[in-house]
């Protein structure tokens, strides 16, 4: 079985709620819902890839410590004074959170710097796949590259 890699708008919630192992991608205001989904379904959500998160409600802030899946938070910083507060808080308060800033990139990073976003998110998904396979959450073994990295 191979995990799905879905954006929030492309059916991530439906896939997760049906029990399909899924890497959930979300951006802007959808980030809050993706976090709620990951907390509710930690055995099905394999990772979160969150782009340009908007400020989130207090109930989501309270859930961040409960997120147990590897989480990549990507944000663009078009200028030195860009506000990265929401993205920094997400990555900092999630136990397996990783924060990446794409300096000088216009917002949103996932469309304006698609190549960088794709490289970061693809690498992160590969790592999360290896971790999930090692933990028995996936039936397919990780790629040889990932197997070598985990030894």
Number of helical runs? Answer: 7
Distance between the termini: 23 Å
Outline type: globular
Supply the CATH superfamily name.
Answer: Alpha/Beta hydrolase fold, catalytic domain
H/E series: EHEHEHEHEHHH
- Averaging pLDDT over every residue, what do you get? 87
- Could you tell me the number of beta strands? 5
Q: CATH fold name, please?
A: Rossmann fold
Give the DSSP E fraction (strand runs of 2 or more residues). 15-25%
For the sheet with most strands, the description reads: 5 strands, parallel
Any idea what the CATH architecture is? Answer: 3-Layer(aba) Sandwich
Indicate how many domains the architecture comprises: 1
Any overview of this molecule?
The longest helix has 21 residues, at 114-134. Mean pLDDT is 87; it is low at 145-151. By secondary structure, the chain is of the alpha/beta class. It has a 5-stranded parallel β-sheet. Helix 4 links the parallel strand 4 and strand 5. The chain is built from 7 helices and 5 strands, in the order E-H-E-H-E-H-E-H-E-H-H-H.
């Amino acid at each position: 079985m191979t995990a799905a890699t879905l954006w929030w708008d492309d059916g991530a919630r439906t896939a997760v709620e049906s029990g399909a192992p899924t890497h959930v991608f979300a951006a802007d205001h959808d980030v809050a819902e993706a976090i709620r989904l990951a907390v509710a379904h930690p055995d099905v959500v394999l990772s979160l890839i969150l782009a340009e998160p908007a400020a989130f409600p207090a109930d989501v802030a309270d859930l961040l410590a409960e997120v147990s899946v590897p989480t990549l938070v990507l944000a663009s910083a078009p200028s030195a004074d860009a506000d990265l507060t929401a993205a920094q808080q997400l990555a900092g308060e999630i136990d397996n959170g990783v924060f990446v800033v794409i300096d000088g990139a216009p917002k949103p990073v996932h469309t304006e710097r698609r190549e960088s976003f794709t490289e970061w998110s693809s690498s992160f998904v590969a790592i999360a796949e290896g971790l999930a396979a090692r933990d028995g959450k996936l039936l397919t073994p990780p790629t040889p590259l990932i197997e070598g990295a985990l030894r």
